[in-house]
Design a protein that fits this description.
188 residues; mainly beta; nine-stranded mixed β-sheet; five-stranded parallel β-sheet; 23 strands
Length: 188
């Protein structure tokens, strides 16, 4: 095998796992899941049926990625952060896939520990969600979101630093400009 699966983890049939990926203790990867190359899954991670995960993703301990969620490349999911996939769940009246709302996480986005992403809301590329935030609306590319419900409190650079008021990174000196769906790099 060109990937690692800890002996305590369970991987169902009909799963694709990319080269260099590591799946650590007590994980469950369900049927139909597609996981890219060089990903890392911490202890007690569940990847549900038909979930798609890009290359280079880091999923920390105690995260469940439910059907309807798609992670782009290089997404970071902090410890115990939460995805949902049904806005109106009932234990005695399950809807199954027909009731799920899709959630797409853009390339390079980071979601902090104990944050919650309510289904049906997408997170733009390179966006950063603060620990404990609750995402209840779409998030623009490079946006810094915090609070309950999450509100945009700034912009972040590719390097992760918070941009100053001129949309300049004081750490790596990248300059950004506003566009319709967030911001974009002007110079590298």
């Amino acid at each position: 095998m060109s990937y690692f699966i800890h002996e305590t983890s369970v991987v169902d049939d009909n799963v694709e796992i990319g080269e260099g990926t590591k799946i650590w203790l007590f994980c469950h990867i369900q049927s139909g899941a597609k996981i890219g190359r060089n990903c890392s899954f911490g202890q007690n991670v569940n990847v549900s049926n038909n979930v798609e995960i890009g290359d280079g993703c880091r999923v920390q301990n105690n995260v469940s990625i439910y059907e309807g969620v798609k992670l782009g490349n290089n997404v970071f999911c902090g410890p115990s952060m939460v995805f949902t996939n049904d806005l109106t769940p009932r234990a005695d009246n399950p809807k199954g896939r027909a009731g799920y709302l899709d959630t797409i996480i853009g390339d390079g986005a980071s979601i902090g520990a104990n944050a919650t992403v309510v289904c049906g809301h997408n997170i733009g590329k390179r966006a950063m969600i603060a620990a404990g935030a609750v995402v209840t609306k779409d998030v623009p590319d490079y946006a810094l979101m915090a609070g309950v419900p999450a509100k945009q409190i700034g912009w972040v650079c590719d390097c992760g630093a918070i941009l100053n008021e001129k949309l300049l990174c004081d750490k790596c000196c990248k300059q950004y400009r506003k566009i319709d769906k967030g911001i974009e790099i002007v110079n590298e």
